TrEMBL record:
The keyword tRNA processing does not apply. This is cyclic pyranopterin monophosphate synthase. Its EC number is 4.6.1.17. Pathway: Cofactor biosynthesis; molybdopterin biosynthesis. Pfam families: MoaC. NCBIfam families: moaC, PRK09364.1. The keyword Transit peptide does not apply. SUPFAM superfamilies: Molybdenum cofactor biosynthesis protein C, MoaC. InterPro entries: MoaC, MoaC_bact/euk, MoaC_sf, MoCo_biosynth_MoaA/MoaC, Mopterin_CF_biosynth-C_dom. One of its GO terms (biological process) is Mo-molybdopterin cofactor biosynthetic process. The lineage of its organism: Eukaryota, Viridiplantae, Streptophyta, Embryophyta, Tracheophyta.
């Protein structure tokens, strides 16, 4: 058995009823034609409440608030099942505290292991921009070389960009960019490695993303239709969760 509060609209209707019934002028009010119209209006409110809750409110205008709560019957197993699902969902979000607040994960008790992560993204250039990049005719210079350096620098700054990321001592960063003539795009792959207590997925994804943003910056003067797409983790290794690899890779 579970008792739920009624809707805001219903609460407002009941407050009107209680206010009218408890006011010192309420009885005098109901002795004139105008007051009968008010009584009719209150009657309509009662009917509306009956249509919502399936039964009229407590008899008399001065019914208590307790008489206007809604009682619903739920299967106990259903409540337990739904509660478990919600708790499981919340418990899986390590950056959310017990009160729902944001928190930085304490990794002091974790084991030190070798951590590796690989991420990728694609920058769709279009035929015109693709040909200019391939022939190194962009006014800003060598697009792929500049984007490669930007990706490496970006990975080093991950904890400054993502608030709850740990400041990690990276042991390796790799950023590769290749032209794809099939869809006139640049395929980007970023890899980060560290020996420590937390993973490097965000560093790998930051490397790939910043490289993609740099490609856009180098080419935006020619086209505004450039798209940065498919930013995703491809592989991670190390730590408590072990190895993971994207299936379609």
């Amino acid at each position: 058995m579970l008792t739920l509060p009624i809707s805001v609209a219903a609460q407002q209707m009941m407050m009107i009823c209680r206010f009218v019934s408890r006011s010192p002028w309420s009885r005098r009010f109901f002795s004139s034609d105008a007051d009968r119209r008010l009584a009719n209006a209150i009657s309509e409110i009662h009917k509306e409440m009956e249509s919502v809750f399936g039964e009229p409110p407590a008899s008399g205008l001065a019914g208590s608030a307790e008489n206007h709560s809604v009682t619903l019957n739920f299967n106990d197993s259903q409540i337990r099942s739904e509660g478990c699902t919600e708790n499981k969902l919340v418990s899986g979000l390590t950056h959310i505290g017990s009160q729902g607040e944001a928190q930085m994960v304490d990794v002091s008790l974790k084991e030190i292991t070798k951590r590796v992560a690989v991420a990728s993204c694609k920058v769709i250039l279009g035929r015109e921009v693709f040909d200019l990049v391939a022939s190194e005719q962009m006014k800003k210079g060598d697009v792929l070389s500049v984007a490669k350096m930007a990706g490496i620098c970006g990975a080093k700054q991950t904890s400054n960009l993502i608030p709850l990321c740990h400041n990690i001592n990276l042991t390796h960063i790799r950023v590769d960019l290749s032209l794809n003539p099939q869809d006139f795009s640049v395929d980007i792959e970023g890899e980060a490695a560290s020996t420590g207590k937390t993973g490097v997925e965000m560093e790998a994804m930051t490397a790939a993303t910043v490289a993609g943003l740099t490609v856009y910056d180098m080419c935006k003067a020619v086209s505004k239709h450039i798209q940065i797409t498919n930013v995703q983790l491809e592989h991670k290794a190390g730590g408590k969760s072990g190895d993971w690899r994207r299936k379609n890779r």
